[in-house]
Amino acid sequence: MAHSYEDIMHMLSELQSQELSIIRLSEPISAANAPDAPKRTSDVSSDAFENPSPASLAADLGHYKELFSKLRFSYLEQVTKEKFLRAIVGDPPQIIEQQENVELEAQLVAVKADLKLQKADVAALVDELEARGRELSRRYENISLQTAQLSALPAQISSLQDTLIDLRARQSKPSTNPFLTLPLPATLEIVTSRQAELDELNRQLKSLQQSLPRKTGELELREKELKPLEAQKAATVAAAQEARRRKEEAERGLGDELELKGRWYRSVDTGLREMLGVEA
To answer: Global pTM?
Structure first.
């Protein structure tokens, strides 16, 4: 039989309204085992007993361990004194032989070994219970959180439905963009494809960025090689323009005169340099 949302929330609310407490859960068992149990009179805080927490329970555990340790010591001391007094004042006095002490010591060793095993079993059981308690506490907190989130879902769903109705009302006519009318699976497929393309572009961009310093160095080297060529080109262009100018002047009858002047100037320059000892 399927339950409605209201029924599930009602059951969860009832379960959460019941306070979970190990001490209270153990009260029926404790009452059945000890119907005439006396009222608790230890000096441990009663508030910690009524409202336990991990810190208060750890404090109670330490208190009881110390209390029972003192009680055990007092009990053993009292029983030993009583047995000793009964042995020396009895009629006839009880005499313990050496052999009996040896037998009792052997029994004591066996009892201590058995007690040690039982203590180990109890310690393992306590560790298991503590681990299970922590796990149950974690699960209870998760359930409480999920219940709170579940309680808020109806209001969120209602708000989203109102928003959807408002958006549909604002959209007077369907969009002409085909990508805006795609169903969710097709939209997710396109998003995945675009993301793959973006990742590929990012990879290529990263590769280009890594090769940028090397390309920059090559460009600087080519620029250095290009500067002498540009100078040579400029000189060649100037020489070509000069040759063209001379050709045009020669066509007008001025080329021979200029050539003669040039030879005269060159011979004068050479002679002066030789006289002054200046190298060309």
So the answer is: 0.39
